[in-house]
Amino acid sequence: MQPSLTAGGSRRLLKRLRDLMAGGGSGQERLNQVVRIIAADLVAEVCSIYIMRAGEVLELFATQGLKQEAVHKTRLAVGEGIVGDIAAHARSLALADAQSHPNFAYRPETGEEIYHSLMGVPILRGGRVLGVLVIQNRTFREYDEEEVETVQTIAMVLAELIAGSDLITPEDTMRADLALAPARLDGLRLNEGIAIGRAVLHQPRVSIRQMVADNPEVELKRLDDALTSMHSAIDDMLAASELAESGEHREILESYRMFAEDRGWLSRISEAIRSGLTAEAAVQRVQDDTRVRMSQITDPYLRERLSDLEDLANRLLRHLTGARTAARADLPDDAILVARTMGPAELLDYDRAKVKAVLLEEGSPTAHVAIVARALNVPMVGRVKNVLTRIEALDPVIVDGDHAQVLLRPSDDVREAFTAAIEVRAKRQASIAALRDLPAVTRDGVELSLFLNAGLLIDLAYLEETGAAGVGLYRTELPFMLRSTFPDVATQTEFYRKVLTRAAGKPVVFRTLDIGGDKLLPFLAESEEENPAMGWRAIRIALDRPMLLRHQLRALLRAAAGTRLDVMFPMVAEVAEFDAARALLDAEIARCRRRSEALPSTVRVGTMLEVPALFWQLKTLLRRVDFISVGTNDLMQFLFASDRGNPRLADRYDVLSPPALSFLRELVQVCGRAKVDLTLCGEMGSRTLEAMALIAIGFRRLSMPATAIGPVKAMARSLTLGPVRDYLTGLCDRPEHSLRESLRAFARDHDVAI
Description:
22 strands; 16% strand; elongated; 754 residues; 8-stranded parallel sheet; alpha/beta
């Protein structure tokens, strides 16, 4: 085994490379010198550099040790061979016997068959693989961790040489022409709304001019000064008046502040400085390493935290270099921010009066930046594939958050159509707002109760704006998904008390933790399941982890002391499960009494009806519950054995079909005879046509997102119940796939506002 480099030797090598990069000559000439220097210093018989070319192909650009005729001739597809595998996964490999590796691909023109050991590291810049740096030896050499880290640092220096040279060919002219054409891109709705404006490219990456440090102590002092400056700036942001009020958006920024003081993150940066990098290069090195590690993680919560970490790294780089971002430039008054990803603080850097919408290549509804965008009422569309390669600065853009689409460089007629749509939307919102204080009642006097679905404190502001009767479904799991650790009883109590305070006396139905399936908590270990929607989730987890449920119930009882508490359990499949959950609640009530703690004035207990099996136990169940809430999202997928997340099945079954409506109508009748409150809180109730059908079969309580309350109320106030009830009764026994078009025709003929 060959001796590894010392820290001093590593710094000397980096300085030699720095001097070489600063010298003259073409990029190819400098690469040829680089491989000779690296091979000599690392005591390697081969050093090769592969660079990514168009079409996801790695081309051998320079080598010391392999046959020179292989340069620019040997090519490997991403994923092909060991080099291709390194590029595909953006991870380093150190192999004592490379030829025994299953991905080894022999290229006779290179003459590498005599070399056994191999170490390869990806050449990364901004999360993108630019190439692969490889060293090889004849012997079965075990490369140690320090040598791998040294080569990773060298690869980072090479990334700047490659990116700033003539080695990478420019983009195809056809692609450039494509970028100027009008285009429509689809994405994922992160916040609703429509905006028209001009693209502002959010480019947080800072160009690093010097990679190698002369004096590590000076760089450590620069890092410390930059951290102090950054912490002060974040504190100023938290003190901003518009963020002073407590809520998830503030809690997110406070947790972001804690990220900025993470010792593990800071120690890795300090170690990189001591290896010979400047403070800026060390931050970039740690950022690239973190991005690669987290890109392998499938857990959506943990992947979303990558945005926060990248935000911090970019922010720290700006404090080190004094660089400005687009947020500090002269923004147009109609700015549409465009980014690959964005942290919550990065959005707040911008003038909120000028930001009309945000587009992201990544993102999800539970990402911190999406929650802040909702707090600021900024339309946002995420997962817009390749938007950064299709758009230029100041391009005209239309963002349709309602339908999760983006129109780039729209024609005048399209722009005029959306301008008219914005005006119509504003007028409709004004007319709906005028209904806020009017009752939800049909034209023939049937009274309805419209409730709000909520899951975050910021949602509760809509209670007053919409005139909702209360919160029919409060999803308690969403705040848990924003945290890295399980909140204790005191923290939960404070949170639920805030919910009840903001509800200002209106009823709030708290659903206990509905976790599992597609809602994973970062602090709850879960095994992989073939069918998570029908697996270990919701009440099943709660009964298997009773203290988790007991702590939540304890917090709810304390928060509701002296007032009304409504609790319901999710995903109940049999009465025995409800009884077991109710027993835990009763145990917590008894505990409060033993400790002479104040109790709620009233405790109402119910269950979600999402599993069809529970329908055939209603006679027994109705004697035990105070209310039932129908979760149609899960109920319908189980009723039709149809995965609601599968796009191939999206139109396969319809909630407005005879079997679905007949099932729901019988449920209404059974609950009505037992005089048990029945509410529907799934997506079905939030659409006006479906809501009309639900009212016709007997539902009088619907819970929905805030944006649906106005339109559903307007529909109800235009509806005469008798005719639609009689009409639908005659349809429910028919064999049609869907009654949708028949109901739509009825609404049109009877002037129902759908």
